[in-house]
Design brief:
Chain lengths: 10, 215
Amino acid sequence: RYVYRSKDEL
Amino acid sequence: MNAFRLAGDMTHLISVLVLLLKIHTIKSCAGISLKTQELYALVFATRYLDIFTDFISLYNTVMKLIFLGSSFSIVWYMRRHKLVQRSYDKDHDTFRHQLLVLPCLILALLIHEQFTFKEVMWTFSIYLEAVAILPQLVLLQRTRNIDNLTGQYVFFLGAYRSLYILNWIYRYFTEPHYVHWITWISGLVQTLLYADFFYYYISSWKNNVKLTLPA
């Protein structure tokens, strides 16, 4: 599943 | 995840733990701005709306819970705990932080990556975090003797975002299409606001003298 990468930071 | 990002998160964690240690063990919040703590609780509440919908990793979720839990419990301590309240410098912590919330909300409604509730709230949290330290820096200028834990708290809090900047530079050069102007500019503004604090903090540390900020 493609993870919404750009929000992988805190 | 790169080393800069991990170092940034650990530095942020340390700043939170230092503050919790100070408030929980010696029951003192001397020199700490309740306004900044409330702004940070709002930052995390609006940034981590996706905590139960988008699972990134266990690390990501655990860290979000830690930041949410610590920021709200610090606000609770400073508002409700009788003993902690005694050391709260209410007369000097007078920055009108409402003046920060509204402009950030308006800016988030104007400049964002997508016009959805979650995205606008997330963008609002990015803008708000950039200025959330202002009440704390103003309070430090008014506080005569800044104790070590307070100085360390602010130092690590400022350092974490500068490490994030290194992380963004690294990701920009290693990941295609990794461009996030909103986060980058806000993070830069946030770090620049600490510039004079860093200068006085490091020179007080080098000359081994008490940290004082000029009014």
